[in-house]
Structure formats: structure tokens, C-alpha cells
Amino acid sequence: MADTQEIKQTLWDKMADSPFVMVGLTDAHQHSEPLTAQLDKDLVDTLFFFVGKDNRLIGGGAAMAQFVSKGHDFFACLSGTISESNDPAMIDKLWNKQVEAWFPGGKSDPNLALIRLDIDSAELWETDISLSGRLKMLVGGTIKPSESGSHAKVSTTAT
């Protein structure tokens, strides 16, 4: 079972490998939508997203993001606040070919907006089931908590 620091580091490693999350405003009574998180190692507890100015998240507010790793062995629910953050220096820093594909006008595209999710709490799960736990799954045994993986509720995702 991983300690809290290890599971936080795993979150950022997994998100760097596959930065796709479902994001929604908690008070808007609308469905979440898939977005690609832009990660900035200099800003802990913050995810950035390039969106169109007509995106449902542009108005900001309380939000949640859900993440599932590529291998379906790590899960996260991130809670925080979304706000618009059109800082030209941050747009330059986070800009990449994948973003450019969505905004043909480049960094000066009139529809381009940068929003940020400032994380204020998170719940993280790592399904690192032990060998004995996997064997029990095959034969119908009961898996002990120590065999099932790691879980943490945190107020910061900083490692």
C-alpha cells in the first residue's frame, strides 16, 4: 500500500502520461465534458485547459474533474474552482501542437480561452491489487484491504 506522498506523485505521473479528464461545474446541473489538462510543474494543485469562449465552463465556479488512467489502475476526483485565466505568458508556456489543432488562428485565435482549475481537495485511488488479492479474485476469496491498493483523501496534491 502506497503512502500519501507516493499516491500524489502517481497522480501527476499518470496525468502526464494521459492528461484527459471529465470536467464539470458542480452548480450548473450540466454534464461534465472531456478536456485535455495542461500541466504546469511550477503551479501545484492547478490544471489548465484551452477551450472555446463559448464553452460551458467559461463562466467558472465550483467544479469537479474526474480522471482515470490509461491502464484503469488509478482514479482521481478533483474538486476546486474554475476561472478564466488568459495570461499571455501562460498561454505561451502551455501552447503545443495538440492545442494548435483545435485553434486554427493560433494563440491569437478570437475563440481561444484558457481556464484553470485550482484544486482544493482530491480523492485518489490506486488499484494495485497484490498477487494474493488477484489469486483470491480468481477463486472467489475475500480480498483484505491490505491487498487491494491505495486510497487517500487530500487537501493538496503537492508531493
UniProtKB/TrEMBL annotation:
Superkingdom, natural source: Bacteria
InterPro entries: Split_barrel_FMN-bd, Stress-Dev_Protein, YdaG_split_barrel_FMN-bd
Domain General stress protein FMN-binding split barrel: 8-129
Gene3D superfamilies, alphabetized: Electron Transport, Fmn-binding Protein, Chain A
Descriptive protein name: Pyridoxamine 5'-phosphate oxidase family protein
Organism: Sphingomonas hylomeconis
Source taxonomy: Bacteria, Pseudomonadati, Pseudomonadota, Alphaproteobacteria, Sphingomonadales
